[in-house]
Amino acid sequence: MRLTSAQIHFTEIAVPKQNSSIYSGVIYTDNLRAAQQTDMYITGGGKDEVFEPRFTVHGFRYVQVHNLWKTPTVDDMEGVVVHTAADEIGTFESSNALLNKIHAAVVWGQKSNLMSLPTDCPQRDERKAWLGDAALTVDEALFNFDLGSFYVSWLQEIRNAQSAEGSVPDTVPRTFGKAIADPNWGTAFPTIVSCLVDHLGDVTTAKDMYSALRAWVEFLRMCANRDGLSNMYYVHGDWVPPPPETRTSGALCSAFAYLNDMQQLIALARLLGVTDDVTTYSQLYAQLAQEFHESFYDEGLNGYGDGKQTANVLALTLPDVVPAALKSTVVNSLLADLAAHNGHLTTGIVGTRYVFPLLSSLGCTDTALAIATQTTYPSYGYMLGNPAEPATTMWELWDAPSEGPGMNSRNHIMYGSIDSWLYRCVAGVQPRALEPFVVAPPAVRCGGPVRWARAVYISAKGPLRVRWEQRDEPSSPLEVAVSVPPNARCHVVLPSDSRQIYEGTALVWPAVSASAQPPGVHGVTVAKGSFVVELGSGDFCLKVVV
Question: What burial letters (b/e) apply to 426-437, b meaning 16+ CB within 10 Å?
Fold first, then answer.
């Protein structure tokens, strides 16, 4: 009879032999802090025994087993993936292998941080539902997983934790962080509601949460009235930029969150027909936009705050903050800073969330793609491909292998916000549950890092399938294949320099009579300088000659 007390240790990091990629058999657990991440099993002496803990979970990449009566093999162990029951509903793929690895790492990290609550990390002695992490990643999460009920449940907990004056805490349930959340953490409250409307058309939750969201914005208004935007309170700000970079102005980041939350409240008020609030907050926002500019614009820097990437990204993201006469100046300052850093980011988690969609909105998707596909520090490519410790999930720190154990998770979802941009701006999918879908393939240069992209998104209206391809030859047409679910409509946005647009072999632009349009094509319009092809349900293949 072999009675042993086997110990099983779980960790993120295995230590390689010196000057080698072969692992030494030693595991590193210091960054787990007080978390034991250890199971002990006393065998019963039988020939075949199965041990599977039922009352705990471990976040790990490596397993070390001690004191087993025989040397274990890979076949003796099975990793069981544990997470909130949520079907995967989205897929993304492109011609660029690194972007595909980024997407896979985000999905794996998001899945392992769905434990009844949207946690920050699954391994160390934290595993908390930080509002900041959730605010950054909810859009990505709703593209990838069926999480409507999951987020509605958590919104109710956030509302239950709200104070009488309208503030919410950093974590919910609050067992970590500050009782009054940093504005860029508290923004999870309106952001999640807005994303549920966009992805699922969930007007019921918007109506149910509206008064609580209004109270949160009123709390921020009280703070801004007391201190001014230039002295807006903050706790974390643009958290963990890549060393040696320092965080940009915390007050500017908080002022951004306040104005951004007000924009979301105005949109929800308009949706719900709360016309008095639409008027009141629209007028207030106009005043605050001017105050933001006057408080933070620096003529000497041709930009906002300290002139860092995050400061200019946030100012440019907010509607009507940057005066029209200065917009090109600020955009050029941002692009110049990116070029000065050889196409690398200096942003923390807040700036990173907004820099990619901002660049795409400015017609600079090629610049965004160049940043996203960097492989040297700091970059996603460095995270996933560095020779010392190639990641399989998002790191907490851009320079994780160089930092100590105090705060250094190798599975932290907050930098996973980039996946939202991959769906929206690289694949070109915009959900708009209450309106027609929008598919807007990016304008990319021939021979660039992405030649094609495709996505499947199982929306509230049914599965939407999109694939676009731009071959390397300059004269080759842009091809966009779209499958629209039954009883739905889709607007496909195409380049403004399109000379001819075909559906299959049928010409749809230049204009033909409505009766001559192919089945399912409801017309072509011009909006904001682009062509918009209006499609009904069905399968379509558009070809664009420029």
Answer: bbbbbbbbeebb
Enter the tokens of residue 248: 């940009």
- pTM of this prediction? 0.94
Q: Which of 419, 349, 377, 438 is nearest to 120 (CA)?
A: 349
Q: How far apart are CA 377 and CA 516, in angstroms?
A: 55
495 band by pLDDT with thresholds 50, 70 and 90: confident
DSSP state of 194: H
Instruction: Return all residues near 505 (Cβ < 8 A) that are at least 6 apart.
Output: none
Strands 452-459 and 297-298, how do they pair? unpaired
Calpha distance 150→169 (Å, rounded): 19
Q: For residue 326, give both structure tokens.
A: 């200065």
Residue in the structure block whose two tokens are 């495709």: 454
Residue with tokens 């991959």: 422
Q: List, in order, residues 6 or more apart from 36 with CB less than 8 Å away.
A: none
Angstrom distance (rounded) from CA 358 to CA 330: 13
Helices 203-227 and 188-200, packing angle to 10 deg: 150
- Backbone dihedral angles phi then psi of residue 486, each to the nearest 5 degrees: -55, 145
Using DSSP bridges, classify how beta strands 62-66 and 5-11 pair: parallel, antiparallel or unpaired.
antiparallel
What are the pLDDT digits (tens) for 56-82? 888 888 888 888 777 888 888 888 888
Count of helices and strands (H, E) across the chain: 14, 19
Does an H or E element contain 92, and which?
strand 90-94
258 sits in which H/E element: helix 250-272
Task: Judge whether 542 and 502 are in contact, CB under 8 Å.
Answer: yes
Contacts by 434-438, CB closer than 8 A, 24 or more apart: 434/197, 434/201, 434/203, 434/271, 436/488, 436/489, 436/490, 436/491, 436/534, 437/461, 437/464, 437/484, 437/488, 437/489, 437/490, 437/491, 438/490, 438/491, 438/492, 438/493
CB 411 within 8 A of CB 454: no
| Rg, C-alpha atoms of the chain | 25
Contacts with 121 (C-beta within 8 Å, 6 or more apart), sequence order: 59, 113, 127, 396, 409, 411, 412, 413
Question: With left for phi above 0 and alpha for psi between -120 and 50, is residue 320 left, alpha or beta?
Answer: left
User: What tokens were used for 34?
Assistant: 């007080």
Determine the straight-line distance between the first and last CA of the chain, rounded to whole angstroms.
78
Q: What is the largest CA-CA distance in the chain?
A: 86
- Is a pLDDT exceeding 80 seen at residue 356? yes
DSSP one-letter string for 440-482: ------TTSS-SEEEEEEEETTEEEEEEEEE-SSTTSPEEEEE
